Structures are given as structure tokens and as C-alpha cells.
Amino acid sequence: MLPLSLSLRTKGSHLSFLSRPLRTLQPATLPKKSPRLHPGNVYCRTRLHTRSIHLTTRTFAARPPRSRDRGPPSSEDTQTDFSALNVLGSAAPPTTGIDACTNDGFVLNNDVRIAGSGVLLVSGEAFRWRPWIGASRREGTIAEGGKGDNDLVKRLKDSRGMWEAHIKAWGILDLVWPKPDLLILGTGPSTRAPSPITRRYLHDLGIRLEVQDTRNAAAQFNLLATERGLTQVAAALVPVGWRE
């Protein structure tokens, strides 16, 4: 094996090969520490450890439509017009539903007119309802010439401003069976919270209570009575023109 470094000398016709001792090669030394970055270059420092992936840039993000025009209406027979969709269109309205609210009474869907009184709708029947009359008042005694307590008219607002009727005003609910699941109470021209006594009495009967003004209560009764049936929903409505 020839040495890595050779020198050639000529002496006449004689050739001699001289070898030179080789220097020992040392392994390359690397810096022990990684190159330091500039302290202000935070972007480069974070790029060495984390890498973020952006699928959509702001330039190509979706923009809101300039127009909501969906073109001319389709002529297909199978197309559904959701604006004209009426789920309860084929269901017959209840006969004791409220057709109109007058100042002193109501007009039912069966053309029955109630004047000078509220109405209590239970199990498909309509009853005159006067919760403002005191419990000890005797109806009809004045017309018969007797001595009746005609001045005992009870207020529907207690000392705290809450709506309250005497317990005897709910007597029909105590007798009827099966009892309705929900009672919609219309408190007159405006919504007034019922008293704890009224809530507790209806809760003991197993009847849930929902309170609204009379107009909205009548509309909700018509909807729920058509959807769920007359035995599940009842209504107790005070005339819209009631004033104390």
C-alpha cells in the first residue's frame, strides 16, 4: 500500500520514493451551545419550537352575500312554501274558543256572547266567571225584593298589588275530573302576577298556571286547545275593560 504523500527524486536512472510522516487528523469540533438569536427577534425564537398552519387566509375568507334575492319562484308542484305552511290548518278550532274580546265580555266561536262577566273555559264548557264578587254576597236578592249584600264587591288586587281571587272562585276546578293540566289566566288589560295563595291553591289541585293579559291569554288558549285538546287546557279570563 503506497503512502498518501509521496515525493519523487531523480538520480540518474535511479528513482527513490521518500515518505513524509502524516499529521494526525483530529475530529471536527462543534460548538457546544446552539447559536443564540437576537433577544428582540421573538418571531424567530417561536418559529424554532412551534409551527402554525393556516388553512384559510383573511384574503380568501367568505364574505356575506350582497343580495338575498333567490331568483324567480319555482314552478314545480313539489315545492313547499313555508310562509303558507299551517300545521293546524286541518284541525277544527274549539267551539268554546275566544273569537273576540270586548270591553265588558267575550264572543265565543259558537256565537255565544258574554257581557258583564268574565269567562271560565273548562273541558269544552264555558261558564260565567266573576271573581270580583265577594264570597258572602247573595246573587239575585235585590231583584227579588230582599235584603242582599249587593255592595260586597271584592278587589282583584291585594295590598301588595298582586292579582288575587277568593278560593271559592275556583270551585269548578275543584269539582271537574279529569282536571286540566294547564290553566291560562287572563288578568285584564295588563299582566299582573298572582298572589302566593292563588298559586298554592292551584298547585295543590295539580294544575300548572300561566299568567298573561287577557288578549294574549285568549290567543294562547285557542292555540293550545286546538293542539292539545280541551281537556288538557283551561282558561280563566277577566274582561279587558276591567278597572278597579
Structure description:
With 244 residues, the chain is of the alpha+beta class. It has a domain at 98-237: 3-Layer(aba) Sandwich (Hypothetical Protein Mth938, Chain: A). It contains four helices and ten strands; from the N terminus they run E-E-H-E-E-E-E-E-H-E-H-E-H-E. The protein has helices at 42-47, 171-175, 196-204, 214-228; strands at 6-11, 14-19, 98-101, 105-108, 113-115, 118-122, 125-129, 182-186, 208-212, 233-237. The strands form three sheets. The chain has a five-stranded mixed beta sheet with strand order 7-6-10-8-9, sandwiched between helices. A three-stranded antiparallel beta sheet has the order 3-4-5, with helices on one face. The protein has a two-stranded antiparallel ribbon with strand order 1-2. The termini are far apart. The model is unreliable at 1-14 and 139-151 (pLDDT under 50).
Using brief descriptors, characterize the structure shown.
Hypothetical Protein Mth938, Chain: A; three-stranded antiparallel beta sheet; five-stranded mixed beta sheet; alpha+beta; disordered N terminus; 10 strands; 244 residues
Distinct helical segment count: 4
- Looking at the overall shape, the CATH architecture of one domain is 3-Layer(aba) Sandwich
Q: Helicity range of the residues? A: 10-25%
CATH topology of one domain: Hypothetical Protein Mth938, Chain: A
Poorly predicted tracts of residues: 1-14, 139-151
Taking all residues together, what is the mean pLDDT? 75
Structural class of the helix and strand makeup?
alpha+beta
Number of E strands: 10
Radius of gyration: 46 Å
Q: In what order do the strands lie side by side in the largest sheet?
A: 7-6-10-8-9
> CATH homologous superfamily of one domain - what is it?
MTH938-like
**Order of SSEs, N→C?**
EEHEEEEEHEHEHE
CA(first)-CA(last) distance: 127 Å
What is the strand content? 15-25%
- CATH class membership of one domain: Alpha Beta
The largest sheet, given as strand count, sense and whether it forms a barrel, is: 5 strands, mixed
Pfam family, one: DUF498
Protein name: NADH dehydrogenase [ubiquinone] 1 alpha subcomplex assembly factor 3
InterPro entries: MTH938-like_sf, NDUFAF3/AAMDC
